[in-house]
Amino acid sequence: MAAVLRHRGEAMPVQIKKLEENDISVTKKPSPLSWVSYLVIASMAIGIKSWQPLAIASAKQEDGSYNFSKGTMVLMCEITKLLICIPIFLYSYYTTTDPSKRFAMMNLSFQDSLRYMIPAILYGASNTLVYFGLSYINPALFHVLGNIRIITAGILYRIIMKQKQTDLQWLALMFLTIGAILASPDASKSDLLGESSKALLGLFFITTMCLISTSSSIYTELFFKKGQDISIWYQNLVLYMYGIFVNGFYLLFTEHESLNANGFFYGWDWSAIHVLVAQSLMGVILSFVFKYLGNIVYVISLTVSMVITAVFSIIFFEFQCTLTFICAVMVVTGAIYLYYRMKILDHYKIDERNFSF
Amino acid sequence: MAAVLRHRGEAMPVQIKKLEENDISVTKKPSPLSWVSYLVIASMAIGIKSWQPLAIASAKQEDGSYNFSKGTMVLMCEITKLLICIPIFLYSYYTTTDPSKRFAMMNLSFQDSLRYMIPAILYGASNTLVYFGLSYINPALFHVLGNIRIITAGILYRIIMKQKQTDLQWLALMFLTIGAILASPDASKSDLLGESSKALLGLFFITTMCLISTSSSIYTELFFKKGQDISIWYQNLVLYMYGIFVNGFYLLFTEHESLNANGFFYGWDWSAIHVLVAQSLMGVILSFVFKYLGNIVYVISLTVSMVITAVFSIIFFEFQCTLTFICAVMVVTGAIYLYYRMKILDHYKIDERNFSF
User: Into how many domains does chain A fold?
Assistant: First the structure.
């Protein structure tokens, strides 16, 4: 109701303005999710995240490049996600929603909707930074160190979402970062001192990139949760439309020459379609993760799916099962227990001061 | 007093027997140690444990063997430790101890003293198992997996000393084991699946060896702490005399032929003396660790000194500083915080339920 008042006019009585602030802070909190829904969303995120790298790997050429342009892939993903959301939104609007509640499910002012552009811009910026970073540090090490996004997620969550964490949860995020780094197949190959001259600059770029790309996810979470009553499909519609706008602009700016010469779909084949489907589905599932769970759950799911992918690689592609990998899996498991320890103890009504065995 | 009564005769009134049990359970608890003494003992253990591998490495031949026999080294260490303890005990007996307290400082019945043979026998047994283990698994992997002694120390502490630990302390021991494994220079070289046929048997031998050698340390701790009022120098005298007895017997049994042929000190040089001094000093310091701190503190010190040795090797011997090693150091640090967390929070009077930032 407060949001309705807001975009009718600027001059509002103080009384109502206060109500609006309250209203937002209330709707900001996610509605309590059942354990089942929680696990279903997290499992879907883990599943799709385990599938995605396999799709990307199968599209990769031997020299590590792709036949298709990355810019057109990003734009096509935004378009596909929009095409997925439109029918679902329309169906829920006309069929499953009571007419009296239809207004609430798309109650987003134009000014508020403009904020949805922030994640798209940040996402583009972090993609650009990758190119700078890769000129200072080798791709394997770059990929491995990208896992510091786990700890930056915690830091930015504290800054943007103002959510404090216990000492054990911070420790858990540190352990999770380490576990993810150790589980990366390239971790043991990288000698840090070997390229110390450039490593610091590379590390700076990676950290900046992680900060920017994580900000993008956390702002998505913030805006999606702020409009808790708005339909997630409507929020996605708006997000993807801005995404198409920003990425289309970015593509024209960076690749207009090759697009003119080769056409939009140059280099696309079935493996590209495979990537498109995996990325688009992931985008839609991520919107659920951000609206109903959050970015910390997201980085935890990310790590779990990385471990699952590695286990699959060991079983089906005969990768080596090293001692380091086994240690990494145990560190990740321990970190997840540490992060959810308070919830687990509360759930089983265990007094932590006497929890010894 | 109870112990005095005990070796006077078998038939004791029930009243006194009860008193004795109480007495033992009271003296079992170590007298509260100041933080300074705690840190001094732990630091000395860390220092000597960081020195020891360097001494051993300098005595090692290129093919990994030693010029001297291991059996004579073990026996000579026991003799050297005894020679260190005798003058110190005599000095403290005649000079620094009040005559009325002299009886208490060596109040150990012959029957009780016999128990001191248990650690020596277990120690010999675990040394023998090493040879079996090494025929199933390569020395590098054997050395790396030897770190599971950290977690077996926790398990045996629970069984022998009946000391419970919190979930976080168990988790800390798991993380510490992993950190120690990852910090071992040979960890990344070992491919587990590569020798899976023999690996399970090797793992079985390593686990058994760790269980036996850790039992040896924990029994030492148990007996030393039970006689809390007895002088540690007297306890050491007894322990080392039994050690000389058991190891001398063991040496005659296993190496009498080569001893007859080559003589006792065959292959001894200055590097052997170096090892002898390091090992003997370590033995004496360990007795303080066991009597006043305990086996968990010991395995933690062990891991810290391993990290210190590795850092020295990186600085002075130009070892590679790998990403895995940096991760290992962070895991070890996090594990130590986790293990002492409750003590730290209590010390700073922090309420753990509200400890978020």
Answer: 1
